[in-house]
Amino acid sequence: MRSADGAHTGLMPELPEVDALVEFLRPRLIGDFVTRADIAELSLLKTVDPSIDALVGLEITEVDRRGRALIIGFDGLNLVCRFARMGWLTWHDTAPSSPIRMGKGPLGMRVSLASGAAFDLIEPGSKKNAAVSLVRDPTEVPALASLGPDALSLTVDGLAEALSESTSRIKTVLEDQRIIAGLGNAYTDEILHAARLSPFAAAKTVDPQTLHNAITEVLDTARTNLIGLPPGKFKTAEKRGFSVHGRTGETCPVCGETIAEVSFADKSLQYCPGCQTGGKKLSDRRMDRLLK
After folding, report:
1. CATH numbers and ranges of domains, the chain
2. Which of 12, 55, 104, 176 could cross-link to 37 by cystine, CB 3.0-4.6 Å?
3. Cα separation, 258 vs 205, whole angstroms
4. Contact of 232 with 239, CB cutoff 8 Å
5. What range(s) does the Formamidopyrimidine-DNA glycosylase catalytic domain occupy (predicted)?
């Protein structure tokens, strides 16, 4: 779904994408005032007090990110937007004149502004997992209260401690928001490729400095590629920058090996056997069953 300045990406929004969205929104939102706040999908709103109508007349004072969540701040209130897998924000320079239809289409919420602009929170598809909470303190949202250190501020020592205490695979650790906030399936694929690590490697065996370098390199590059673009161009720029994620069957840009995949019930990971697993393919039980 597209508008002049926004689009749904088709990938779960992760740290670089939400950071770029924050940079896009700050000059457009801060200092503006809310004139209307309409809910089109009741399941989107997770709080009842304060009422969403409490936003009307308030000035937007801050736009920020915590983990993968977008936070729009007002005087004493915060609108916390968690996009889940399919949710996103669409920007309108001029608020649409068409009436909002409850429970119809991807629209979940529309916020109209005194400047005449508006933004929508959308979630295509029948599964509605995105969430909006209006709270006085963002930590009132349990998912934010439990966040670990942000992937961009995580120190080598902090990462070393997290790895040494884990009994999980490194891919699982990187995606656990309680351990490291901001990463998801796509960028963990990219980080592990940059670090030349198998996604199935035991976390406690991983060198913290090598992994930290890869996290910094991948996220800094992604943010540089996205910041300054309108949200409608994030998807193209993001995919163009991926080395392995979403590129099953293509050639690895580093070693020339064919990029492989492991499928799960609700997602898949991509990796390069040449760079990450010593030339060996990881077991893909789902695919093995299909081929029997």
Report:
1. 2-145 (3.20.190.10), 156-291 (1.10.8.50)
2. 55
3. 26
4. no
5. 13-142
Q: Alpha-carbon distance 119 to 89, whole Å?
A: 7
Q: Which two tokens stand for residue 79?
A: 């609108």
- Position of tokens 């902090």? 158
207/85 Cα distance (integer angstroms): 30
Biggest distance spanned by C-alpha atoms of the chain: 62
Q: Which residues, other chains included, contact 9 with Cβ-Cβ below 8 Å and sequence gap of 6+?
A: 17, 88, 234, 235, 238
What pLDDT tens digit does each residue of the chain (292 aa) get? 334 455 444 678 999 999 999 999 999 999 999 999 999 999 999 999 999 999 999 999 999 999 999 999 998 999 999 999 999 999 999 999 988 988 878 999 999 999 999 999 999 988 899 999 999 999 999 999 999 999 999 999 999 999 999 999 999 999 999 999 999 999 999 999 999 999 999 999 999 999 999 999 999 999 999 999 999 889 889 999 999 999 999 999 999 999 999 998 788 999 999 999 999 999 886 544 433 3
pTM of the model: 0.92
The torsion angle over the Cα atoms of residues 82, 86, 87 and 93, rounded to 10 degrees, is 150
Tokens 């995949």: give the residue. 261
